Amino acid sequence: MSTELTPPQPDTGAATQKDSRRALISSFLGSTVEYYDFLLYGAAAGLVFPALFFPKSMDASLGATLSFVILLAGYLARPVGGILFGHFGDRVGRKNMLVITLVMMGAVSVCIGLMPTYETIGVAAPIILVGLRIIQGLAVGGEWAGATLMAAEHVGHRRRGIAASIAVTGGPTGSVLATLILALFAGLPDEQFLSWGWRIPFLLSAALVVVGLYLRYSVTESPDFAAARTADDVHTGVPILRVIRQYPLSSLYGMLAVAGPLFMQALLAVWVVPYVAAGGAVARQDALYMLTFSSVLHIFAIPFFAWLSDRYGRRPVMLTGAAVAVVLVFPMFALFNSNNPWLIALGFIVGNPIIQASMYGPIGAFLAEKFATRDRYTGVSLTFQLGSVLGAGTAPLMANWLFELDNKSSTTYIACYFIALTLVSALAVYLSKETLRRHAQVASPVTATPVSVTAD
């Protein structure tokens, strides 16, 4: 279908270099703090929560499954948060929404760090945990798109891919912090770690939030949004309705495109760590350090693939990444099953900075360039967060189920499922139009002489 968008506008560098640099730093560090909070739960879900927030008489496998169900609750809340914060982000601005999401995330992490366990308050413990996880999900639902757009919209069109990726790297950076700090305390004796050691990483979130808030208050509003507001092209209508009516295929393709890489991200962070630790070849703490090291490489790999997409296009890079993922997923699992610590560490490196990053690096610009300015926050939030439910949210549960289905004898079913999901993501990318050469047309819908642009 077609939608009325503006003709290409010159890249005038509306934001100063200082504003752009500040926006990039703010988006990166703010996203890092938020994902530290969100991913810390994922890291703890397989290691700590089954023993603390469910009856001790419960089967360990069932306890882990219920922890992953609560993990999924946070992912289910993310599209709702995306619609909510996207609505106000498209009507009143990006900056204020990002401040609110940051405060919400920090408050929830501190509450989790102070929570009484099942032994103290019984069934109320998992119920409260579900509520806190849903609030986390709402906040992250508005965070990813907002941070990505603040970075992308502060730079010229030619650098949009790598600028958006700076905010995207907040995810692996937050993962590094979460797993590294949790790993430090995981080295304590089990009794100390389960009684108080696991709580410290959650409580440390308060200090990170203070730093993030200072940076977010200092950044200027997005130049693209400011231009649309000046032309009176915001404050009207309901963005989610416009997204549904004008961008149905763009939204569908965007959602499916992110599902494959997000499945791999969550699988490594939540399911693989306790899996390799249970095998006996590596200790719990060592497995977390391996994940941390691969995430450090991930921080540099994501901008690299985004830079490639600025040169060669979003689709070619992402399709090549999907092909790499299909080829390498069985070797990756072979490394995890090798019972050799060095090979297991190599497995994390194959999974994060190679398989996941090659598909994921260009994703910020790929999604942002599908929507006009007045609908972009909502459109990007909705597509990414629905994809996160399909990919990351279901990853631990699906992996657990497939592993049980294979009588806990191999990871073949998990690898096959990932290949199928990756092929779906690749098809969605293939059916999408390349946005690198036409994204100037989609940058702002304010114009005296609109032109018709065919949506995906």
UniProtKB/TrEMBL annotation:
Pfam families: MFS_1, Sugar_tr. CDD domains: MFS_ShiA_like. It is found in: Cell membrane. The keyword Transport applies. It is a multi-pass membrane protein. PROSITE patterns: MFS (PS50850). InterPro entries: MFS (IPR011701), MFS_dom (IPR020846), MFS_sugar_transport-like (IPR005828), MFS_trans_sf (IPR036259). One of its GO terms (molecular function) is transmembrane transporter activity. GO terms for cellular component: plasma membrane. Residues 23-437 form the Major facilitator superfamily (MFS) profile domain. The keyword Membrane applies. Gene3D superfamilies: MFS general substrate transporter like domains. The chain crosses the membrane at residues 35-54, 60-77, 97-115, 121-141, 162-186, 198-215, 252-276, 288-308, 317-336, 342-368, 380-399, 411-431. Keywords: Cell membrane, Membrane, Transmembrane, Transmembrane helix, Transport. PANTHER family: SHIKIMATE TRANSPORTER. This is Sugar phosphate permease.
